[in-house]
Specification:
single chain; 253 residues; alpha/beta; OB fold (Dihydrolipoamide Acetyltransferase, E2P); 5-stranded parallel beta sheet; 5-stranded antiparallel beta sheet; elongated
């Protein structure tokens, strides 16, 4: 049975190049998903269950570190793809399958393929949690971009300013994003995948492809009769869906 792999890379040229090189150098490898952001990668990981994941460390929305946590839990072999050598070396030394520096060269990829092929006959690294935590801290420390403080939204002919501290959740709706506070709501044009990169990840959690919620207002998460999870919020009568890809956030709650 041919091995399976997932590629998550937000730069189209880099993604296409890696796919082409893998096809040339490892024709037996079956690429089951090619993803342009962390959320798509997380969903594909759950659906396709690949044996190998090639993960860009820096991606919009969910980072490669967050996807790697889920991949490690699923028993996949991880190859980090990065332009930052300090991340890559730490990942390889700690037991990740391997790393690739951008731009990926045929010679370096050939080495990676040989190492991954050898490791496919062995169990994946048992515990990557310390490595992933260290990489996450280093990644966050290098992100100097300030988090969003205000949301400018429209309601009919009126433009409203919402302090970010008042927002309960954001909901993607067609071409717009709904912004909900305890007493009001409006819409903005910023796509959810762009919005999440401007929010403090410790304060706002993505729980579904269409929902980002303030973590502190989640009162409980319940399973319905069909086995679907929903989050009940303080300050809102709405119940928000929690997709399977994000249920791991609530394991310790």
């Amino acid at each position: 049975m041919n091995p399976t792999a997932l590629i998550a890379e937000d730069e189209p040229a880099q993604r296409v190049s890696l796919c082409r090189l893998l096809h040339e150098q490892w024709p037996q490898l079956q690429l089951v998903a090619e993803c342009e952001d962390g959320l798509s990668a997380l969903e594909a990981l759950q659906e396709k269950q690949p044996q190998i994941v090639f993960l860009d460390i820096r991606m919009p929305g969910l980072s490669g570190i967050e996807v790697a946590r889920a991949a490690a839990e699923a028993g996949a072999h991880i190859v980090f793809v990065t332009a930052y050598d300090e991340y890559a070396v730490a990942a390889f030394d700690a037991g990740a399958a391997d790393y690739l520096l951008k731009p990926v060269t045929p010679e370096r990829l050939q080495q990676t393929i040989a190492r991954v092929q050898k490791r496919l006959s062995q169990p994946p690294e048992a515990n990557l949690s310390q490595l992933l935590e260290a990489l996450d801290i280093r990644l966050r420390s290098n992100q100097i971009k300030a988090h969003l403080k205000w949301v400018t939204a429209s309601l009919g002919d009126t433009v409203k300013m919402f302090p970010i501290d008042d927002v309960l959740f954001f909901q993607a709706q067609d071409k717009y994003v709904r912004v909900v506070t305890p007493t009001d709501e409006a819409v903005i044009r910023t796509p959810l995948k762009d919005l999440i990169s401007q929010l403090d990840p410790e304060t706002f959690w993505q729980i579904h492809r269409s929902f980002i919620v303030r973590a502190s207002v989640i009162e409980r998460v319940q399973k319905d009769a069909l086995g679907h999870f929903h989050a009940k919020l303080r300050g809102s009568s709405e119940s928000l869906p929690v997709s399977a890809s994000f249920q791991s956030r609530f394991k310790s709650m």
